[in-house]
Each structure stands twice: as structure tokens, then as C-alpha cells.
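Per reviewer request, we include the raw input and output of the structure prediction for the construct analysed in the revised manuscript.
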Amino acid sequence: METTSKECAAEQRFRAAWPAYEETAQLDALRAREYSRLDKLGHVYLDYTGAGLYAACQVSEHLDLLASRVFGNPHSENPTSATITVLLEQCRRKVLDYFHASDREYAVIFTPNASGALKLVGEAYPFGPDGHYLLTFDNHNSVNGIREFARSRGSAITYVPLTLPEMRVDRGALAECFKLARPNAANLFAYPAQSNFSGVQHPLEWISQAQAMGWDVLLDAAAFVPTNRLDLGKWHPDFVSISFYKMFGYPTGVGCLLASRSALAKLRRPWFAGGTITVASVQGDRHFLAEDASAFEDGTPDFLAIPAVEIGLRHLEKIGDLAHTRCRCLTAWVIQDLLSLHHSNGRQLVRIYGPLDERGRGGTVAMNFYDAGETIIDHRRVEEAAAKRRISLRSGCFCNPGGGETALRLSKSELIGCFRDHGEANSRFTQEDFRHCVDSKGTGAVRISLGIVSNFQDVRRFVEFAREFLS
């Protein structure tokens, strides 16, 4: 795509304002070499929080491995099984090494995705009538869903609200909630290291603060680790959920739960499956769970895909902190430029939910577009228009209803009114039904998110697209 003098001048101003961007120049060479399909196909990819992109070298290295070896089901001692078992254990060690986690402190449990990791905790955590599940409004639905396990076993459930306009957790309320842990009970606190809605990065210091007050801590790191390094040698949450495809795009069927061995010992699985036991008997009506991670990996793991995780982690190690630096610079610029867009009557085109600079946030930016009369423009319309320009972004509430409800200022009474006639969990209630309930406020937002090989042209093209909505 030909670059105009106006576009060149815009990039020069950006580089002058954010000199740290120059330090990331090797990512441009990486994009040209390993992600060239983006520019060949004219794509502007702004959905890294939805899924990372894989490098061509990741796929070719994995293909070479599969084409040159013979691998069998690891639940055996035969030669092909033994070969893949070595690679699976090697990958476990690589995951621990990447996150600076000691194998004496943490176990790696491979799961289908981050949601699978969170479900493992929810179903096996020893919730009870004296227990408590504490979580922030700002959480993915896979974390919200754990409340159903807690509720079914009689545990209390408490949500900590967010404060506007930055959509950070109310720290005063959180401090009071930390006092709710009951001694000798099962108390679990869950929060995201980075919001998948607003990009807010919540303090990792909460981990030790909560633990000191009697809470086990579940850290959802899925949105954080693609462009930030989580150091488990410094921070010691009890459980961490990871999605590898969000980190490096490939493979898509593998995530993991990093669990401290002391916390893992507290979990009680509600069932058993192939691979999770040492012995099970039909007539004896007994089963004996395997030790450590094996007791939590149901059935046969995705043994052909898991070696690709190690390949992806090595790929990220070569990039180091460059992606973090680049995303910080680009995020600051795109927020600033979006906020400068005004209709002819002076009213603002875009309202951004969350911090309005790069401090304490990641490269995820949620917003809504408004017309000159300050009426919200349906987020679906924005996504459809972007698609026509080969811009990949996301719209909706991003599986984070607490974030959406806070951003759109939807009250508890409004929401209870919406759901009044739909009391059962399996009752039919569609997005269209919800839209009719709160139509004037909107039911979602537009989200862009930056990643490993985002560049200035990507964010510039998005801002130019946004200009098309001005009147």
C-alpha cells in the first residue's frame, strides 16, 4: 500500500513523541519475515486479546517435528509413547522456566484453554457453607462461572465494584472485602492481571495482600502474558490460568493451569477419567487418583500440539520486552488521536472506557462511537464497517459483563428488571432481548487490541476509519 506524504508526516510526529518506539525496530523486520501475510493480504489486525498471531517459523518447526518423528499415545511405555512423553515433560519444564516458576513450588497442568484451567479450579476447590468466593466486577465469564460451584456448596459470593472513569477496582471496598475471609475456611479471591475489557492492569501486589488475610488467589493471566512477563519467582498466586494461543497464536487447543503444589493438595476432584488415576475398579467400586498434575489432566492430552507450546515460548523469548514497549507507545498514541476526533458541533466522536493514557494499562482499548447528537452508534455497525476495510476488531461485551455493565452505567435494578421473567439459568434470553431492555445505553462496546507485530500503520488506519463517522 502506497504511503502518502501526510501519512509519513504523521508517523514522524508519532516517532518524535514516542522515541522508545525506535527501540522496537526489529519487530518490523520480524513482521516482514514471519508475519508477511498480514501486509500481503492487506489486513489490519487489532484483535490480539481475542487471539495472538503465529509466526510462520512456529508452524514450519512444528511441522518438521511431526514429519520427522513417530509419536504415540503417551499413556504407555512403548517406544512411540516414550518419545512423546519426553517432549511433554520437556514442555512442562519450559513453561515453568518461562514464568520463572520453581518446579518445587508449581505444577503445570495442561488444559484445552484458559477456561478449562479455571473450570478445574472451580469444580475441585473445597467451597463449603463457611467458605467465600471473592471476585472483581472486572472478570472474564470463565471466572464469573466459578460462582456457580461456590453457590451450589453454600459459599458466600462477593463482587468488588469498579470505579469510573478509569474502571479500576475500588481499593477501599477491596480492603474491606479482604477482611471477610473466615479462619480455617475455603476462601478464594479471583481477579485478572489485565482486563480483557478495558486493558486495566490490576496490581499484582494484591496477591500477597489477599493471602495474608486468609485467601487463596486465582490470577487470570490470559490477557496479561501475551505482552507482559509474569514472574512467578516474585509473585506467588495459588492458581494461574494461561491461554497459549493468546500468547503466540498456535496451537489453539492448549492452555494450562499453573498451580502451587500446596494449593493443588486442597483440591478435590468430583470425578475421575482416563489418565487421572492409578487404579480404578468396577467390582471393587474404588478409584485412586494419580499424583500431582496427572490427577487433573483428563483423558489423553493433545500430545501432538503440546510440543508447539515450547516452540512458541522460545519465539516469545527472542522478542523479550520489545512487544510490551511497542504496545505501550502505540496505545498512548491511538488513545490520544481518538480523543481528538470531534463532530462539527464540537461533540466527541469516541468515548474510551478505562485509563486515557498508557499508565497502568495494556494494549487493549474499549470504546463506543457517538453521533453528533450524542446517540450511541451500535457497536455491531462499527464492526461491520471495519470488516469492509479489512480491519479485524471485536465488539460486544467480550465475555466480561461486569466491565460492560460498569462502562455503560447499567444499574442493578435495570438488569434485574431485564431478567425478571427469565429466572432459570436455561431460560431463553437472547442478546436481542437484552438489547431491547437497555437500548438507549447500548449493550456492548468496540475493542481494539495490540500485540507482537502491531505497527503505526495499523493504528493510523484505524483512526482514519474512525474519522468516517464524523459529521
